[in-house]
């Protein structure tokens, strides 16, 4: 409310390849409120019908002498949606696990799919009628709700972006709980679907777009080699992938032989098929630079350990190979 910049929020959507072609949505925010580091990251794999194949949702707040960290992972496996939630408050760790048949989760809307769904509503400027969606409350209980009560159109208004005053279309999302609590989010979008502002009703913090997207960002059909269009990210050069992770001189000294070009094309192809690599490294570096831990190796181990628990079979196999 005071107009002070607190952090950054970004959302990207890219095509990905798993057992089937899909989309990967990655949203993240990092910042500090009242000098307390906080943030959230969502990585979701969605079909073109917005069905969730897998999603990881991570939230944290670092208070003086008291930190809260929540991570919820869900993945489709053998006809079930398997959900695992880990909550860390100070030194106390609580774990919850449950699964639901996919038949009862038809129309499930999660944090990841909701961001894309609202963009589609904004592009069409029309609210679908007579639709029922399923959502999960913070306790992982299923909530069946009509589309009208979950989402609603807001009156069209004008917002200033940069030096321009633009017409925007608003969508309101209400997240309900079986305990009677609810939270309301309001988002406004440009005609092309770009998010302009996002706010939780009652919160003094507002996320808003400071500059209009460039023409390249509006029209690109494939992730560019450079990932520096989001402020604070580590740029990825054409011939140097993750310069903070590898020997820059060694890579730059490669001769551009036929074998090298083939290797480079193979690496580029792999990165295109797995955009989660950039999302994962980006989240880790953002959090690392925000917290600035003395022991980087311990911090990395604690950060990546939950990912290993999401795929126990792979983790066991990796442990045996080591």
UniProtKB/TrEMBL annotation:
It is found in: Cell membrane; Cytoplasm, Cytoskeleton; Nucleus. Keywords: Cell membrane, Cilium biogenesis/degradation, Cytoplasm, Cytoskeleton, Membrane, Nucleus. It holds the Pfam family CATIP_N. Residues 1-204 form the Ciliogenesis-associated TTC17-interacting protein N-terminal domain. InterPro entries: CATIP_N (IPR048777), DD_CATIP (IPR047501). Plays a role in primary ciliogenesis by modulating actin polymerization. PANTHER family: CILIOGENESIS-ASSOCIATED TTC17-INTERACTING PROTEIN (PTHR15505:SF3), RIIA DOMAIN-CONTAINING PROTEIN 1 (PTHR15505). Belongs to the CATIP family. This is Ciliogenesis-associated TTC17-interacting protein. It comes from Neolamprologus brichardi.
């Amino acid at each position: 409310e005071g107009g002070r910049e607190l952090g950054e929020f970004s959302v990207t959507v890219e095509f990905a390849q798993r057992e089937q072609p899909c989309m990967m949505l990655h949203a993240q925010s990092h910042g500090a409120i009242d000098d307390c580091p906080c943030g959230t990251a969502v990585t979701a794999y969605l079909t073109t019908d917005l069905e969730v194949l897998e999603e990881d949702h991570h939230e944290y707040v670092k208070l003086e002498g008291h930190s809260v960290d929540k991570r919820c992972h869900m993945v489709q496996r053998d006809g079930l949606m398997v959900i695992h939630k880990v909550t860390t408050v100070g030194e106390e760790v609580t774990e919850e696990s449950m699964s639901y048949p996919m038949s009862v989760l038809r129309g499930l809307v999660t944090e990841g799919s909701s961001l894309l769904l609202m963009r589609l509503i904004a592009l069409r400027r029309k609210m679908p009628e007579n639709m029922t969606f399923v959502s999960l409350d913070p306790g992982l209980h299923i909530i069946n709700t009509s589309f009208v009560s979950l989402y609603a159109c807001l009156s069209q208004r004008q917002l200033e972006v940069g030096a321009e005053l633009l017409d925007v279309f608003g969508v309101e999302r209400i997240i309900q709980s079986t305990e009677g609590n609810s939270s309301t989010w309001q988002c406004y979008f440009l005609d092309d679907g770009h998010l302009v502002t996002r706010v939780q009703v009652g919160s003094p913090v507002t996320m808003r777009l400071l500059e209009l997207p460039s023409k390249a960002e509006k029209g690109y059909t494939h992730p560019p080699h450079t990932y520096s269009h989001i402020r604070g990210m580590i740029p990825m050069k054409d011939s140097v992938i993750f310069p903070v992770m590898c020997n820059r001189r060694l890579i730059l000294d490669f001769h551009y032989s036929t074998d090298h070009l083939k290797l480079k094309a193979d690496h580029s192809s792999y990165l295109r098929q797995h955009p989660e690599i950039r999302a994962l490294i980006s989240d880790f570096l953002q959090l690392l630079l925000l917290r600035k831990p003395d022991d980087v190796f311990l911090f990395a181990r604690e950060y990546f350990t939950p990912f290993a628990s999401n795929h126990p079979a792979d983790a066991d196999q990796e442990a045996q190979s080591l």
